[in-house]
Amino acid sequence: MTQTEVRVRFAPSPTGKLHIGGARTAIYNWAFAKAMGGRFILRIEDTDPERSTEENTQVILRAMRWMGLDWDEGPEVGGPCGPYTQMQRGDIYASALEKLKAEGKVYPCFCTKEELDAKRQAAGESYSGYDRTCRDLDPASARERIAAGEPHVWRLKVPADRGAIEFEDAVYGPMSFPAEVMDDLVLVRSDGSPTYNFAVVCDDSSMGITHVIRGDDHLSNTPRQILVYEALGRPQPVFAHLSMILGPDNKKLSKRHGATSVEEYRDAGILPDALVNFLALLGWSLDGETTLIPPDVLCREFSLDRITKKDAVFDEAKLDWMNGQYIQRMGAAAWVQAARPWLVEAGATERDIAEQPLWFERAYPLVAERLTRLDQIPEKLGYLFWGPNVQLDERSVGKVLKKEGARADEALRAAREVLADTTIAWQCDPLQDAVRALCEPLGMKPKSMFQPIRVAVCGNMVSPPLFESIELLSREDVLARIDATLDAAF
Length: 490
Prior knowledge:
Blueprint: E1 7-10, H1 20-35, E2 39-42, H2 54-67, H3 90-102, E3 106-109, H4 113-123, H5 139-147, E4 153-156, E5 165-169, E6 173-177, E7 186-188, H6 196-206, E8 211-215, H7 221-232, E9 238-242, E10 245-246, H8 262-267, H9 272-280, H10 295-301, E11 312-313, H11 316-330, H12 332-346, H13 350-355, H14 357-367, H15 377-381, H16 394-401, H17 408-419, H18 428-436, H19 439-442, H20 446-458, H21 466-472, H22 475-489
Parallel strand pairs: 1-2, 8-9, 10-11
Antiparallel strand pairs: 3-4, 4-7, 5-6
């Protein structure tokens, strides 16, 4: 580790799934580290014992890996600055506290919660924070009370002459907070556990973090953390605070707007590169025009100066469009692998996919331009796995097969005779040409000929290309479906 090396971190709390806001923060840290040739550290902040679980940690790690956000140091990887979970870093916090005690920069506070609540209630709107009752206690008396087991916390002595707390935010620019509104913050609770602002400064400074890139909900924590950096005598990092992500109604993104976790979008068939691309553009841009930015370009071009102060709006329609673009560009082989769960849901088997990958690759062009999410595959391609059976859509039966004067039964019988002719190659173009040739002698338009076949083979009048689909099916199954349709509808 060198002084000039960029080191950033993503530090989620394992109290639930990895949500969209956290995922964007992780992406920005990861991309910045890659662009600067630095290190991306993953740290688990699990100091909330009631809500933090190992299961949630694994959920977060899986989401990170699925998005391709590989970390250089952290859980399952290790590194020179571990441990990388806060619950295992107690000795580091204790050592930092002892240093502050020795330098007279902290003091024990014996005020009870009830006493503090009473002071807050009495002061009402004029309450400006802890009144420092215990700051000037006689040291010998304080030691005796501690030795007697009296509950206490440890507070930071904010210097009385400390001027405004100022820093240059890489996104928001110059920031200034009046020191007088900063009370003597608690660093260590009565149970010996560190508070967030103390632990995060100990962690970031001991891990050599050079840039703290995080949501602007942490902006109010920054002046407090700067006071801790100063007390510990450690250099403060560059801070970059990210604007909020809003829903279409310009309110903070929440479950009422739809899915909010990475896993939900993964399970809906959003591709990882598409989600990373989409989230990266929620507050950052490459040039103000380019929309499709693959991970390698993002990691090469990302910079803090392109992050906007303006709140970003989560437009799910744009995510769907972007995902559709990635599906179109991914190629058949990659699509088959990504689509496996939904192909199985549609009716394929894992064995079929493993043993006949080329057959499944031939299905890709049928839907490449028709999918926006992979979870649409069962609806759009389910008919490929019906075998000799057909599931007729009632609306299509009424509008196509039983439409007065449509002559659909006549079209199906004529088409069946052609499709049963084994001298015609079972390929898209010859089959389509042979059926089209029936139109003139029957006095029918191509649409009147093709639509009944589409319903009989695919189940409805809206499906992927007809003869490309027929080519993927066996002759026996196609003929059986036409026969079943004739029996059911006429």
